[in-house]
Design a protein that fits this description.
Layout lengths: L5 E6 L10 H20 L4 E7 L4 H10 L3 H19 L5 E4 L3 H16 L4 E10 L4 E2 L5 E4 L8 E2 L16 E5 L7 E10 L5 H10 L6 H13 L4 E2 L1 E3 L14 E3 L1 H20 L4 H5 L3 E6 L5 H14 L16 E3 L2 E2 L10 H7 L4 H10 L7 E3 L1 H31 L11 H22 L3 H22 L1 H4 L4 H22 L4 H11 L13 H4 L15 H12 L15 H5 L3 E11 L7 E6 L4 E6 L14 E5 L5 E3 L2 E3 L2 E2 L1 E4 L2 E4 L11 E2 L1
Length: 674
């Protein structure tokens, strides 16, 4: 595309079923905010939209657990998350919500357009149904083992470990998250979108026309396309969501991954109403550049499903120019887990570290998982704050401010022209600006921020090499030029910091008594604007060891665990049907081409049985030989990876650890338990 006339930037709509954590920020919101602040600094026409995704099974599940309504859940977390974003400085033009009337109308209109254009296939199929709750199960109400990576907590629509999109019937050993029961298949009718019809176009559009996309994005898309696309249901049996607006669809809502991306459109509509703009300029004019910022778990929806739906619509929507998805951010040696409270919550950070938003922004950008997973640790947070923000950025600015106050009472010295040495330093700053721009426009924000920090390094080196605090005694006239140049570097730093460290940038521009834009950076006219600089408190202060220890210990506190709800009560006669016995493992080996599975031979006292168990990531085969186990003997045999498993070894799960439900050592193989 030639230079765009306008930009539409979106960040993934967070589910309104819980608070935001730093993984969310690093993945989809901070990169977008940096990009938008940069564009607005260049006076581009930009609209930055986001909002709460308030539909889908995850919210109804939470409401059921907490014995409240979905509306009360989304109202609570929409408010919490909107405030957390604002407090942290993620500067959306609108933070909307999918429960809004304008969104329901927009989503229903979009669906009707596709329906009336003959874009759907109506099919009757068997879907999972929980008889105890008398309802069909939405994808997120079903959990089981992923058939592709064998992760045992995959959802019915997606495995959050390997990123594969799934259908519930593909799961191994599916369970209802409502009751823990194995669901039954029951006939229902839905409207499917034939993604397979768009496969040739998608291959051309993604793999040929967008070779500049990040490798992690194009790679995942290629994997999907190579595997072949299938029709995907665009409706669900659920009572919470956008009602399907056609006859014969009572009790059905739009699939959340049709509903949610349309939230970008409805948010733009609402913004346009509030700002007297035309929303269609941002969604239908080909000189608009659309960019989606997301995490890697949303790549397939934003790169394959939503673009196909946009293309199928008879209205001419633009398609995303780029989808710079990030990978995942880990935390202190483990995955961020909301269920175990192993997370740094955004609203808590803002409350616990007032005025330190820019420090977290800096650290998260420095370690952003742009092409592979990365990790946040409090020790690294401390090191980057103390060794970079304090020792480099803050040190340079403080030196300049203090010396200008000391020598000239805050008046920036007047000079007629800079000497060659100063011109070389200012040219280095100009080159740094060009590098920052190039990196931001290629969505390399870590690289861009490092170049911004290089401006502070340039300033520090300049002062350290010349030592004006010594030169003032012998050549005060030369010091005037030096301090004038140093203040120009600070002003450049203020402008160039604005996308990355907005609070810090504002403090510096306020000290100069100016409004500095991105275009001011590197300009030869900048010096003429500078007249005075006010005293400044230290921009950054050291993080002490005690703070790191406290925060690490906070993560080690007893964690909330996410357990399946108690299953339906059973009669005593049903319990007596279970044949549970003591067994002894006599051999074990890994199942080929799997990560989790062990093929185990167990002496049951009656015979020797083969059991396939997903414990290979927790136990080495050689370490469990001779282990006494508790075995469910009369479980119906089933084939797993071509091996017939003839029972189930009972395990206890504590967070991410598995342990044998172990009888005493003197228990004899074959002893009945019950």
């Amino acid at each position: 595309m030639s230079k765009p006339s306008r930009y539409l930037v979106t960040s993934a709509l967070p589910y309104a079923n819980g608070p935001l954590h730093i993984g969310h920020v690093a993945g989809a919101y901070l990169p977008a905010d940096i990009y938008v602040r940069y564009l607005k600094g260049k006076n581009e026409d930009v609209v930055f939209v986001c909002g709460s995704d308030e539909h889908g099974a995850a919210i109804t599940i939470k409401a059921l657990k907490e014995k409240t309504t979905p509306q009360e859940i989304v109202d609570e977390f929409h408010k919490i998350n909107k405030k957390a974003f604002a407090d942290f400085g993620i500067n959306f033009d609108i933070y909307h919500r999918t429960s809004a009337k304008i969104h329901h109308e927009t989503a229903q209109g979009f669906f009707k357009n596709l329906f009336e254009g003959g874009k759907f296939i109506e099919e009757t199929s068997e879907q999972f149904y929980d008889a105890a709750h008398d309802q069909f199960l939405a994808d997120r109400y079903i959990m089981g083992t992923c058939p592709k990576c064998e992760y045992d907590s995959a959802y019915g629509d997606q495995c959050e470990k390997c990123g594969s999109a799934l259908s519930p019937t593909e799961l191994i050993n599916p369970k209802s998250t409502l009751t823990g029961n194995t669901p039954e298949l029951k006939t229902t009718k839905h409207w499917y979108f034939p993604l397979n019809d768009y496969e040739p176009w998608l291959k051309e559009w993604i793999l040929e026309q967008h070779k500049d996309w990040k490798t992690n994005v194009s790679g995942q898309c290629k994997s999907w396309l190579d595997a072949g696309l299938q029709p995907r249901a665009m409706t669900r049996d659920l009572d919470w969501g956008v009602q399907v607006p056609i006859k014969g669809a009572d009790g059905k809502v739009l699939y959340v991954w049709l509903d949610a991306p349309i939230g970008y459109i409805s948010a733009t509509k609402q913004w346009a109403i509030e700002n007297n703009k035309n929303w269609e300029d941002y969604w239908k004019k080909p000189d608009t550049k659309l960019v989606h910022f997301i995490g890697k778990d949303n790549i397939v929806f934003h790169c394959i499903i939503f673009p196909s739906l946009l293309k199928a619509n008879s209205e001419t929507y633009i398609l995303p120019d780029n989808v710079p998805a990030n990978e995942f951010l880990n935390l202190e040696g483990g995955k961020i887990s909301t269920s175990r409270n192993h997370a740094i919550w955004l609203n808590e950070f803002v409350a616990d570290f007032p005025g330190k938003q820019d420090v977290l922004r800096y650290v998260l950008c420095s370690i952003a998982p742009e092409t592979k997973d990365s990790e946040f640790t409090w020790a690294d947070y401390q090191a980057r704050n103390n060794n970079e923000l304090v020792a480099i950025y803050g040190n340079f600015v403080n030196r300049c401010v203090v010396l200008t106050q000391k020598y000239y009472k805050g008046e920036i010295p007047e000079i007629t022209a800079f000497d060659e040495r100063e011109l070389k330093v200012l040219e280095d700053v100009k080159v740094a600006k060009q590098k920052i721009e190039k990196s931001i426009e290629r969505y390399r924000f870590r690289e861009a921020q490092n170049e911004m920090m290089n401006v502070a390094r340039i300033g520090n080196k300049y002062l350290a090499d010349i030592e004006p605090w010594k030169l003032i005694k012998t050549n005060p006239e030369e010091v005037k030029e030096i301090m004038a140049c140093a203040n120009v570097i600070v002003a450049n730093l203020a402008a160039l910091s604005s996308p990355f460290l907005p609070q810090t940038s504002l403090k510096l521009t306020d000290a100069f008594g100016l409004t500095l834009t991105w275009e001011d950076a590197g300009s030869e006219e900048l010096y003429k604007k500078l007249k005075t600089i006010k005293p400044l408190e230290l921009l950054f202060t050291k993080v002490e060891d005690e703070t790191v220890i406290e925060q690490v210990e906070k993560l080690k506190k007893p964690e909330e665990t996410s357990h399946m709800p108690q299953k339906e009560s059973i009669a005593f006669d049903d319990f007596t049907k279970l044949d549970i016995r003591v067994g002894e493992i006599i051999s074990a080996e890994k199942v080929k081409k799997t990560k989790k599975l062990l093929e185990i031979k167990v002496n049951t006292g009656l015979d020797v049985r083969t059991v396939v168990s997903g414990i290979a990531e927790h136990y080495k085969p050689e370490d469990i030989i001779g282990q006494k186990v508790t075995l469910l003997l009369n479980l119906e045999p089933r084939k797993i990876k071509g091996i017939e498993s003839q029972g189930m070894i009972l395990m206890a799960e504590d967070n991410e650890n598995l342990q044998f439900v172990q009888p005493s050592e003197d228990a004899v193989a074959g002893s009945l338990i019950g």
